[in-house]
Amino acid sequence: MEATNLAELYGLPLVDWQRVEARLAGPEPLAGTGGPDNRSWLATTKPDGSPHLTGIGPLWVSGLFYFTTGAATRKAQNLARDPRCTLGVSTEEFDLAVDGDAARVEDRDVVAELAGRWAAGGWPASVDASGTALTAEYSAPSAGPPPWSVYRLTPRQATVVLAAEPGGATRWRF
């Protein structure tokens, strides 16, 4: 992994990736990744090249982000055509933007594990009859009606700006 200090001009240190990853992987769900205080977004590209930004409730598991959406949504259609996307998460400690490629998760065991993680975090998701999608009593309106496919975002690059001491900004290329 290559790290670039984007705040060297201000004499701030390189941000340690382990600090960011520890927060993402911590026992507490990411603050603001669902409900009325959502502070997580996914940017995709529309067919005309313009951006599309929508709120999501992501999970970070073993170095990858996961999110859901229905097949008829703009983000699903955009990702089917062009898997490149950017996921943004704003926490109390930092703001993070992750560029990468998203792909539908077809592995039934992975989908079941993620359903359990979302349920443990407060969203009562369960695996649908197909075994490769989720259902629940509710989801974000932007997800469309169930079933919801699970997507995995594999990072290529991440940029963080610390909102807490000592401050700093760093970009990593994976």
- On the 0 to 100 scale, the average pLDDT is 92
The CATH architecture is Roll
Helical content, roughly?
10-25%
Number of structural units classed as domains: 1
Q: Could you state the order of secondary-structure elements as H and E?
A: EHEEEEHEEHEEEE
| Percent of sequence in beta strands | 35-45%
Structural class category = alpha+beta
Number of strands: 11
**Cα shape:** globular
Low-confidence parts: none
The rounded distance between the terminal residues' Cα atoms is 5 Å
What value does the Rg take, in angstroms? Answer: 16 Å
CATH homologous superfamily?
Answer: Electron Transport, Fmn-binding Protein, Chain A
> What name does CATH use for the topology?
Pnp Oxidase, Chain A
CATH class: Mainly Beta
Q: Helix segment count?
A: 3
Outline the biggest β-sheet. 11 strands, antiparallel
Question: Explain this structure to me?
Answer:
The chain has 174 residues and is an alpha+beta fold. The chain has one domain: Pnp Oxidase, Chain A (Roll), CATH 2.30.110.10. It contains three helices and eleven strands; from the N terminus they run βαββββαββαββββ. Strands 1, 2, 3, 4, 5, 6, 7, 8, 9, 10 and 11 form an eleven-stranded antiparallel beta sheet that branches. β10 and β11 form a beta hairpin. It is globular.
In short:
With 174 residues, the chain is an alpha+beta fold. It has 3 helices and 11 strands. It is globular.
Can you lay out the helices and strands and say which pair or pack?
Blueprint: E1 2-5, H1 17-25, E2 40-45, E3 51-55, E4 59-61, E5 64-70, H2 74-81, E6 84-90, E7 94-104, H3 108-120, E8 126-127, E9 133-135, E10 148-162, E11 169-173
Antiparallel strand pairs: 1-11, 2-3, 2-6, 4-5, 5-10, 6-7, 7-10, 8-9, 9-10, 10-11
